[in-house]
Amino acid sequence: MKFYGDVEFNIDAASKPGQLVMISSGANSESVNERWDLNGRILLGFDGTRKLDNGYFAGFSAQPLADMHGSVNIDDALFFLEKMTSGK
């Protein structure tokens, strides 16, 4: 069994091209030429394999992730069963 993880935190900034200064109509208004986005996620991974008595291998991998907005998803998930052959 293997456990692992990854944490990502991103800050993205964008401005409209050709404008060097922030344009705002008041102290409490939002800027019209800049955009800031924050995003990120926490990913956990669980992998496992097992050799069976009949010559087969069974395994799985699951990677649930949670983002900064509270959503929980699955990044990757798989299950496999394969027979070992000589020479491979």
What's the short story on this structure?
The protein has no helices and 4 strands. With 88 residues, the protein is an all-beta fold. The chain has a 4-stranded antiparallel β-sheet, with no helix packed on it.
Characterize the structure shown.
Pfam families: Porin_8. Keywords: Plasmid. The protein is mainly beta and 88 residues long. The protein has one domain (2-14, 34-83). Helices cover 0% and strands 64% of the residues. It is built from no helices and four strands. The protein has strands at residues 2-15, 34-51, 56-67, 72-83. The chain has a four-stranded antiparallel sheet, with no helix packed on it. A hairpin with a 4-residue loop joins strand 2 and strand 3. The radius of gyration is 24 Å and the shape is rod-shaped. The model has no long low-confidence stretch (mean pLDDT 82).
**Spatial strand order of the main sheet:** 1-2-3-4
Strand coverage percent: over 45%
Number of helices: 0
Helix content: under 10%
For the termini, the CA-CA separation is 22 Å
Structural class: mainly beta
Whole-number tally of structural domains: 1
Largest sheet: number of strands, sense, barrel closure: 4 strands, antiparallel
Mean pLDDT score: 82
